[in-house]
Amino acid sequence: MSEQKLFSFRNPWFGASVGVSGAIAVLAALAGLIWLPMVQPDLKISGIWDAICSAAGVPRTVPRSGGAQQPDFKTSNVVMTSQMLTHPDQVSIGRGATLAQRCAICHGPQGVSDANSPNLAGQYAAVTYKELNDFKAGARVNAVMSPFAANMGNRDMLDLAAYYSFLPRVPSSHLNDNAPAPQIVITGAPMRNIAPCGACHGDIDIKAGSPWLGGQSAVYIKAQLKAFASGGRRNDISQQMRNIARQMTAEEIDAVALYYEAQP
Amino acid sequence: MLINKRLILAHFWLAFVVFGLALILGAWQMFVRSPLNAWHFNPELYYRSVTAHGSAMGYVFPTLIAMGFGYAITESALEKPLIGTRWAWAGFALVAVGAVVAMIPVSIGLASVLYTFYPPMVGNPFYYIGVVMVVVGSWIWVALMSINLSIWKRENPERPVPLAMFANVAGSYLWGWTAVGAALEIIFLILPVALGLKSTIDAGLARVFFSWTLHAIVYFWLIPTYIAYYTIFPRAIGGRLYSDAMARISFILFVVVAMPIGMHHLFADPQVGAGFKFMHSVFTGLVALPTLLTVFTICASAEIASRLRGGSGAFGWVRALPWQNPIMLATALSLVMLGFGGAGGLINMSYQLDASIHNTQWITGHFHLIFGGAIVIMYFAIAYDLWPHLTGRALENFGLMRAQLWLWFIGMIVTTFPWHYVGILGMPRRMAFYDYANPAISPQAFSVAISTVGGLILLISGVLFFVVLIRGQMAHRSEAGAYRFSVPVHMPERIPVALNSFGLWLALMVGLTVVNYGYPIGQLLVLKETNVPAVYVGASR
Description:
The complex is a heterodimer.
Chain A (H helix, E strand, L loop, with lengths): L11 H27 L9 H9 L33 H10 L4 H4 L17 H13 L7 H6 L3 H13 L16 H4 L11 H4 L16 H13 L9 H8 L2 H12 L3
Helix pairs in contact in A: 1-2, 3-7, 5-7, 10-11, 10-12
Chain B lengths: L4 H28 L10 H36 L6 H23 L13 E2 L2 H31 L7 H32 L5 E2 L1 H34 L7 H14 L16 H13 L1 H21 L17 H24 L1 H7 L3 H31 L6 H28 L19 H30 L28 H24 L5 E2 L1 E2 L5
Parallel strand pairs in B: 1-4
Antiparallel strand pairs in B: 2-3
């Protein structure tokens, strides 16, 4: 049985199997890479080579005519990653503590206040950093915050973010651990394309850039959701929050605002 | 002759224990996401469970069956003791330890990434390390199968390789090559991110690598089933195999065309060109060929057995088949499920039809019908056939076995047919929660509830299966004799070297892989802008 040569054109099995496999591959390639793209009316193909490149998935430059539509407002230029600012150093925290004296009038000397401005103590550094950046760049606008941020350098923003993330979270004055979570927090509303709040903001999972909402002022949360819904605030990357807030009912907005205010 | 019975039995027992645990998880998943359950659980538990169920059923259970059955075939078909027993035990230990290492992070919620990994989701590194250990353990088996075959061939230069061994080695080579895709994905793309060395991942490239594994792995699961069709079924019903050469060609076709077809799993992915999707679609069509050959050969073999028993008429011979025999029953039920599942598969592989069912519950229905149904029911049959030879104790309760097989068949049909239907209605798969009170979803509620009943039936069948095996372990001793495989109608004395060796087919397998995967992988490797930030699952709050 071993005297017969396997890889030889005298072996009919070799010729037939290689020939048939090759023929199928070549025919499939001709059809898939040349013929099918050529007969598609929507694909503007200039020739055979262009058809092959298109069907093979070579990235093609978008035609310059018209160009991409530019929004008439600024968008956030911050790129979020899961590891961003997760290991602040002590010097940065110390510098942040000094700088934070300017913020204390609204955000409280310990990063917590009852002034319905956001409580920053224990907030993820990446979140605080992104918001400061967006205020400075004009992607988020606020009569009080925008002038503050305008004069901050990148280092200042990093230090402030590190400092506030270093401060311990303080239990909310409205703390109620036993409050039942609203449906939208634990399950979202799939048919309205609303993911559970908890899938990004804690309890179920934490996603990069999503702030910790526990103990935030209900007035503040409600105002932000309404601003997202109306388009008054649009520094959320890829419209993540705008798409959600637009689909929420007024009752749901009230419910989540009160729920998160009562959380630790 | 079976020498290393403890080795083989250890593989089968561990496989079935893993299967039993994963079966319980599967039934629980079906219940909690059905309208029968009020919504009161953490959805994270669902994804944890899906990850454990998929990893156990996809990576551990069939691999151990293929390994254990492979060792049994080596000893009984080559009629000599297995060479490399210590290595075999080492492979078994790697699979067992790997399974535990992978399951710990999954069970504590650090790796709920599902068994398809789904980058850019990244979980705890130990999950991936455990999966790699399972694969490496199985590669030891691949090497042992190859070594045992080549030594036998050197000692028996004039004899054709026994069909069972030929098919077994074909399956091992197919696995050896197809597992490379997922191994590359884990080692070079996912693990550096999971270990914190990188924070971005080329999710598109990772998915292409996974598709390299994802489709041919199904054929690796299928090979023990096909070996049972060809080499156990005709003997068990008192007949002969219709054609030895046809069987070899079927297994060869699996080796050659099961590989370059995985991109039909990526029809909706943007990172692969439409031309390559079309080429993979064409080759996926070809892979129906060995299955059609098999159905023909097995039905012909059944007809031979029936006519030997006095069956007659164009279709009257079907009634004369030994239906009390569990192997007969299992094979018939398996072929029915293979028929339905295969028909659904033809829809999945066509670029246009796939669009309507892509990522819906239809897909879940499809692969449960093929794998959980057609394949696993033959794993039961293999165990029933092999058990008396491994334990030296008879399995006598045929009634219980038939009840178990019927329940598995009914359970699988009741589970998967409604899934196909709700998939067409648009129900997405892999979601923990469906708001059945919503008017847009409520028409699916009844079908989902029915499928949950199917899950319960499967669970009962699983319990019966363990009852049969455990009672078998406690039965009285009886010598089952040598373990034999089917004899073909025409025993091959001399066969072409191409049907007796793998060199040509492995060259074609690798060649077609390069043709169909080379450019898409190369392009994604070169393009730098295809990296995306990783999303860590179960990261600390």
